[in-house]
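Below is how a single chain appears once it has passed through the pipeline. First comes the sequence as given, then the structure the pipeline wrote out for it. We keep one example in the README because the format questions we get most often are answered faster by looking than by reading.
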Amino acid sequence: MTREPNTAVRTTARSLDIIETLRKLDGARLTEVASHLDLPDSTVHNHLTTLVQRGYVVRNANTYSVSFRFLDVGEYARSRRKIYQVGRSEIDELADKTEKAANLLVEEDGSGVFLYNARATDGVPLDIHPGKHVGLHVTAPGKAILAHLPERRIESILDQHGLSSRTPETITTTDELFEELNKIRDVGYAISDEERIRGVRSIAVAIKNENGQVIGAIGVAGPASQISESPAELLLEDISRTKNIIELKLAHS
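Resulting structure:
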């Protein structure tokens, strides 16, 4: 029988629900938050008052919004990853050279998290930004990471997150995913062919530390028409070169 969480845990969960609601609604009045979460106005008011006092929420007239305090916390979390410290300048160069969106992705708690992204001046804008969480199975960097994780870890991630569909091309069965991961190990790179966003294709390779453990992945993404089979081979040369530089920096930093 599952035990009911204690009061302190419920309180924390409600505060987080309120923060996520403010983000989802792009700012909201107290009554809007209460209605969205089906909570009493008084309960939401108490949480919002505390969050405002601690600086995590700001109030403008009667509208509450998430504050920049989270930017400070997020930047701290990101800066702790050595792959970000040594890789961001290389991602910038990769974007310039390929004229595509270049990305650095890591795995956290079974999800893919974009730590850094760069876009060429005239590149097509995508819905990618630092901190964005995505399913590992729907992106090329995510699949590159999965391919180099132990099988038991992969199974644990699938048990936790499943294989949700984003487009008709998304991999949604375990057998198909493991077949894809075996292919990635054989060829050394991963491709997402309109599996997260229609019309967008990406190619990526895994980044490993000096002990051979996968710690992230880098890749480029763009319109499917611009990343056909032949251009993908040329892009792979640039991506592989960037991978080697980052891994050397990691080994000697």
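The domain at 7-67 is CATH 1.10.10.10 (Arc Repressor Mutant, subunit A).

See the next section for the split statistics.
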